[in-house]
Write a structure and sequence with these properties.
756 residues; alpha/beta; Aldehyde Oxidoreductase, domain 4; 3 domains; globular
């Protein structure tokens, strides 16, 4: 069973002889915490959720509501299932994300798939194993189960008799209701979890056999293109959804007999039987729009963010300082993080079929169950009538246009009465994808008179929400008023022991479309945290690594930082160029940073611990080259060590690109970076050697590895740049222009400081 038709395939399992199912009764969907991503729904599905199906053929199907975004969780979850059930890995097939087949476990975010969502799956599999052992005990006519073991797809008795799982399942379907409290396999007995396993998705991808969502074709399918409004990348304000003046359908009437135009509010689209006709119609259709209010200037992000309205939200206020603690050195700093794109390789695509008051959508979404709620609202159906079949897409790690294009396709299909494929253009993807939000962090901190950490006052500003699907807003189904979420607080508390701390968030609505991107607000917050601790170490005349180790709260943190420093051959007291070029005109420096990604609603909970040591070279033109990079990672139990390494590589490459190159530009209408030339990303020739240190924690729970190793990146590079140039860079990205400007300002300052 390949679940090409999730609903029918799920239904078939409940009547299939020779099948063992572990299920839970229909349950209300998870309710998002206040201020957090997600959508509230009162929908209660009619069918139970399956966690695992063991078939008499020996095949095992396991079900999880999250999706694989290239992170390798399809492989890692299969390892967990195979280990707990005691079957060969090759027998396990993971079914992910289909709304009609998998449990609703919320959005695939926050590095939570292995850490959280795998727990009920593991419990269900253990329950299935224990049932098979009990059945084998009866088969062997034993008085008790002591000494009976599940081994490699069989149950083996103490006297050496064995029986295959499949043989124990002859007869009618066995249905077990899920129990959370079941005996689990001891980690000391693991033979699959903790061993590197080749990813199951790679062969089909490498040979071109995998069906991506872009490849989906259904009978009778039409092709459609959308025409977006002129307020590029904006989705909040009274004018949103009310800017269209007219559409001249006569401009495409002669193109083909069957070209159809769809207009609802500010939503405009064209559809045709052939894709080239749809493309031509998109380019030819005359659409007239009202002038739109100008976007506030965003060329100076610090100024723009300070001007935005906000809700003050205190997060932490503690004072554990000694009564006689006296303030010594005090620093006040601000750090600026730019808007980023997801940079998905392929523009988003979806196929939808609205027929007989039911909607099926073939989607590359990251959040199938959340999207189902939005689509039901858009086309005015009960959620149970919306079926999302999830396929892999072309990259994401956050909220790109994958959900928007699903809504586009659903609406067009309903209006024209045919299945519809919608493909966005590169210009539309770049312009309209919800950006990783800009961020401004203000810190005022101090050392006491003995050079020890004393105080830390931290405020973060993060204009973002979860960017509802665009068609909902353009058609007026969803309000066009800005909505504020509480997402700026990820990793807002520093990992270091400051006796006095005040931590707060200025929650603000988006200025432009902005949702989440890999690392969410944790990456900018840690950029500030670990840049500031570096400045304090410098003020205290202390080694940056030793200073951090002295104040890190967690032993895992100290261990991973120390191990990373050893691997990098960190030399205490050794300084870089500090602004003095070598004979080739290059400046060289080394920087360190540490972070643990703390995610979800404040105070949240931690994923993996990570540390960076990075060596940079800055040439005379201001270009920064990373010469060497050592990354340490403590992810608890590593289900698939090679998978963890792959995640670290991906995190490093993407975050280096973001820190050194990427920033979205805007004009009065909105986003102006509409193609790769305007928004360059790191290429393969620029990737440095990446050395990885993995901590051995196989006796601890697994932590999420999807984002954590990206979080120290900004501070590590910034600290290395200080060591190279003698200049503190507090605004990313560290482009040649920004590097040269910093050096010029430093030279000017030095000249002004010299006595006459």
């Amino acid at each position: 069973m390949h679940f090409a038709d999730p609903k029918s395939d799920r239904e078939a399992l409940f009547s299939r002889p020779g099948t063992l199912l572990v299920f839970r009764p229909p349950a209300p969907p998870p309710t998002p915490a206040p201020g957090q991503p997600g959508v509230k729904s009162d929908y209660l599905q009619a069918h139970p959720d399956i966690f695992v199906a063991v078939l008499d053929s020996g095949q095992v199907l396991a079900f999880n509501g999250h999706v694989d975004l290239g992170t390798g969780i399809r492989t890692a979850l299969a390892q967990i299932v195979a280990e707990e059930l005691c079957v060969p890995f090759e027998r396990v097939t993971m079914v992910l994300g289909h709304t009609e087949a998998t449990p609703n476990q919320g959005p695939t975010i926050a590095s939570a798939s292995i850490q959280i969502s795998a727990v009920p799956l593991r419990n269900a599999v253990a329950q299935a194993r224990e049932y098979l052992i009990r059945r084998a005990v009866a088969h062997f006519e034993l008085a008790q189960a002591e000494g009976v073991q599940a081994i490699n797809g069989k149950v083996v008795s103490p006297d050496g008799r064995s029986i295959e799982f499949g043989a124990l399942l002859s007869g009618p379907t066995v249905q077990l209701e899920y129990q959370a409290e079941v005996p689990l396999k001891d980690s000391s007995q693991y033979s699959i979890v903790g061993k590197s396993q080749p990813r199951v998705d790679i062969p089909a991808k490498a040979t071109g056999q995998l069906t991506f969502v872009h490849d989906v074709r259904v009978p009778g399918m039409w092709h459609a293109r959308v025409i977006r409004p002129p307020y590029i990348g904006r989705d909040g304000g009274e004018f949103i959804g009310h800017t269209l003046l007219s559409v001249d359908e006569s401009t495409v009437a002669a193109m083909a007999d069957d070209v159809k135009v769809v207009v609802k509010g500010d939503f405009v689209a064209v559809a045709a039987r052939r894709e080239e006709q749809a493309i031509k119609a998109m380019r030819s259709l005359k659409v007239h729009w009202k002038p739109v209010p100008e976007l506030p200037p965003l060329d100076n992000l610090e100024s723009a963010l300070r001007k935005q309205d906000y809700n003050f939200r205190p997060l932490l206020d503690q004072d554990e300082a000694q009564e006689n603690a006296e303030q010594g050195i005090s620093l006040k700093r601000s750090y600026v993080w730019p808007y980023h794109m997801h940079g998905s390789v392929g523009p988003s695509c979806a196929v939808a079929d609205y027929a007989n008051d039911e909607l099926t959508v073939w989607a590359g979404t990251q959040n199938p169950h959340m999207l189902r709620v939005e689509l039901a609202q858009l086309v005015q159906l009960d959620e149970g009538a919306v079926n999302i079949v999830r396929y892999e897409a072309s990259g994401c790690y956050g909220r790109n246009c994958a959900d928007d294009v699903c809504a586009d396709a659903a609406l067009i299909s309903k209006e024209i009465g045919y299945p519809v494929r919608v493909q966005l253009t590169r210009e539309q993807e770049h312009g309209w994808e919800p950006k990783g939000a800009a961020q401004l962090i203000d810190i005022e901190g101090s050392l006491d008179t003995q050079g020890r950490l004393l105080s830390y006052d931290f405020i973060t500003r993060y204009p973002s929400n979860d960017a509802p699907s665009l068609a909902l807003i353009l058609t007026g189904v969803r309000s066009n008023q800005p909505r504020t979420l509480q997402m700026g607080d990820r990793t807002s508390v520093p990992p270091y022991l400051y006796p006095r701390m005040k931590i707060a968030s200025h929650d603000m609505a988006p200025i432009v479309r902005a949702a989440w991107l890999r690392g969410v607000s944790a990456m900018p917050n840690s950029f500030a945290h670990d840049s500031f601790i570096d400045e304090l170490a410098h003020a205290a005349n202390a080694d940056p690594v030793a200073f951090r180790l002295q104040y890190l709260r967690e032993s895992n943190a100290r261990d991973v930082l120390a191990a990373t420093a050893r691997k990098a051959n960190w030399q205490p007291g050794v300084k870089g160029s500090r602004g003095v070029p070598d004979s080739q005109g290059n400046l060289r420096g080394r920087g360190v940073a540490y972070a643990r990604y703390v995610h979800s609603k404040f105070p949240g909970f931690g994923a993996a611990w990570s540390a960076w040591v990075v060596d940079v070279v800055v040439d005379s033109m201001g270009k920064v080259r990373v010469e060497r990079l050592v990354v340490g990672q403590d992810t608890g139990m590593m289900v698939n060590p090679d998978g963890v390494r792959h995640q670290i590589h991906g995190n490093v490459i993407q975050s280096l690109s973001r820190v050194l190159k990427e920033e979205v530009k805007f004009n009065a209408q909105g986003v102006v970076d509409h193609e790769w030339g305007a928004y360059p990303i790191m290429n393969f020739t620029e990737i440095p050697p990446i050395e990885i240190v993995l901590m051995d924690r196989q006796d601890e729970p697994p932590m999420g590895a999807g984002e954590s190793s990206s979080v120290p990146s900004g501070a590590a590079i910034a600290n290395a740049l200080f060591d190279a140039t003698g200049v503190r860079y507090r605004e990313a990205p560290f482009t040649p222009a920004r590097i040269l400007a910093g050096l010029a300002a430093a030279d000017t300052h030095s000249a002004l400081a010299e006595p006459a």
